[in-house]
């Protein structure tokens, strides 16, 4: 049914870069046969899933939205893909994304943009617009995304889907094509909070192949989602982040947010305002740390080992000239912009002024979270300041594009978990997201509150 749905809608939406039809059907039939034989299967066995194209999949092409990896077929699976396969989940395909996950609109994909199923003239968010659009268009029941500065949550907000960035280290990064290693985190993209919890429990947990993987069991997110669904939030303290509202937030976004606070109050939660004064500097710190780490991570795309190789038109074929020709042809403008920015920020003489200062700001943001979580159980805000904007409208203005992540970035800098869930529609008829943030390793708290609000 999902493959039929993809055939019907994906010509317009373009959520998929690769549809894995044959293997998905084989897995589905195999699971049916095992179920018929009375085998005890995982609860998600047979439920199909779409995977963001930044996650490596053995035998299935993986491009990270870039020409530099066009035609590359990974020889191994990411840990999370191993877990998906072991559970018997058919992999429907790989979803579109901004090149190397750099963007907020999926327009920086080298393979053309994804369109928002709610309005095909609008962006589906980014960088994981493909995963969110696939789920919103009923072209996948579940998907996997990655979130370095908001790429699961902001697409969730603008497509009316649930997106979760677990605590940093909660789901293995082994087999994720790295953007910024200290910020990257994979997570679920679904239509309900409970679906996210089920997927989170499957994908999460310790992985010795990722040195930053949390060596403890996944927090009890499924139980928390079930508990929250009862609608009782008595005794739960919720903090509204003062700095994530006001100027720049669309009126309809703020109105839906206020209404949801009323709903939470009605369910017994105590709502207080909390101030996180250093969040103001989060965007600035992020756009130094992320490009710095990305410029280092992307050095491996050199035309020597895998993917695209371009030799210079004329002159000697030296390693350096092949690298230059390959990277010049293989990377898009946004990737080049960030590699240049990151290389500059890391260069001798500037390191302390830029990268060093940004790391200090990061510590201040972590302290803001620590102080806030002494007062409340979870923090809340709108996920994104606006609803989905028109395709093309921010392409010439990188700063305007970056500002869309103002509310999602603090969580990545501090490593704390974040969830976006649907929060009705704004005055323009487009979906709005409600963000819930919890302390590190307390992911279950946001599932409880999210399921109650849903
Ligand atoms: N939109 C943000 C950026 O462009 C976040 C990206 C992400 O989370 N991968 O960097």
Automatic annotation (TrEMBL):
Complex and partners: Heterotrimer of A, B and C subunits.
Organism of origin: Paraoerskovia marina
SUPFAM superfamilies linked: Amidase signature (AS) enzymes
GO MF term (any one): ATP binding
EC number(s) stated in the UniProt entry for this protein: 6.3.5.7
Family: Belongs to the amidase family. GatA subfamily.
UniProt superkingdom: Bacteria
Stretches assigned to the Amidase domain: 1-445
GO biological process annotation, one example: translation
Name of the gene: gatA
Entry coiled-coil feature ranges: none
Protein name listed in UniProt: Glutamyl-tRNA(Gln) amidotransferase subunit A
Active-site residues (renumbered): 52 (charge relay system), 127 (charge relay system), 151 (acyl-ester intermediate)
One Pfam family matching this protein: Amidase
InterPro entries, per database record: Amidase (IPR000120), Amidase_CS (IPR020556), Amidase_dom (IPR023631), AS_sf (IPR036928), GatA (IPR004412)
Reaction(s) the record says it catalyses: L-glutamyl-tRNA(Gln) + L-glutamine + ATP + H2O = L-glutaminyl-tRNA(Gln) + L-glutamate + ADP + phosphate + H(+)
């Amino acid at each position: 049914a999902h493959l039929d749905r993809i055939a019907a809608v994906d010509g317009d939406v373009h959520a998929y870069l690769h549809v894995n039809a044959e293997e998905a059907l084989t897995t589905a039939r195999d699971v049916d046969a095992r179920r018929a034989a009375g085998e005890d299967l995982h609860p998600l066995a047979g439920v199909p899933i779409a995977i963001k194209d930044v996650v490596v999949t053995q035998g299935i092409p993986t491009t990270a939205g870039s020409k530099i990896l066009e035609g590359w077929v990974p020889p191994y699976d990411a840990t999370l893909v191993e877990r998906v396969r072991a559970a018997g989940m058919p992999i429907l395909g790989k979803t579109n994304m901004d090149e190397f996950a750099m963007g907020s609109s999926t327009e920086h994909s080298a393979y053309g943009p994804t369109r928002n199923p709610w309005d095909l003239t609008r962006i589906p968010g980014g960088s994981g617009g493909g995963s969110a659009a696939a789920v919103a268009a009923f072209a996948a029941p579940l998907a996997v995304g990655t979130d370095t500065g908001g790429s699961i949550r902001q697409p969730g907000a603008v497509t009316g889907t649930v997106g979760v960035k677990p605590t940093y280290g909660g789901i293995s990064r082994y087999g994720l094509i790295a953007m910024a290693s200290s910020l990257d985190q994979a997570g679920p993209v679904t239509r309900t909070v409970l679906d996210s919890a089920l997927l989170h429990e499957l994908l999460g947990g310790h992985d010795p192949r990722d040195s930053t993987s949390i060596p403890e069991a996944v927090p009890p997110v499924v139980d928390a989602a079930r508990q929250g669904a009862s609608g009782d939030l008595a005794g739960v303290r919720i903090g509204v982040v003062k700095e994530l509202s006001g100027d720049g937030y669309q009126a309809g976004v703020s109105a839906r947010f206020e209404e949801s606070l009323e709903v939470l109050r009605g369910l017994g939660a105590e709502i207080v305002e909390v101030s996180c004064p250093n969040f103001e500097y989060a965007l600035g710190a992020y756009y130094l740390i992320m490009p710095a780490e990305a410029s280092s991570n992307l050095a491996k795309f050199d035309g020597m080992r895998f993917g695209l190789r371009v030799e210079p038109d004329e002159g000697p074929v030296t390693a350096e000239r092949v690298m230059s020709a390959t990277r010049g042809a293989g990377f898009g403008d946004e990737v080049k912009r960030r590699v240049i920015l990151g290389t500059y920020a890391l260069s001798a003489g500037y390191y302390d002024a830029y990268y060093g200062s940004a790391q200090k700001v990061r510590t201040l943001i972590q302290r803001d979270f620590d102080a806030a979580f002494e007062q409340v159980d979870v923090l809340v805000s709108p996920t994104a300041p606006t609803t989905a904007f028109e395709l093309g409208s921010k392409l010439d203005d990188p700063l305007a594009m970056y500002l869309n992540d103002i509310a999602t970035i603090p969580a990545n800098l501090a490593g704390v978990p974040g969830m976006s869930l649907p929060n009705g529609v704004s005055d323009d008829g487009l979906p709005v997201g409600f963000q819930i943030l919890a302390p590190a390793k307390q992911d279950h708290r946001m599932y409880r509150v999210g399921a109650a609000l849903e």
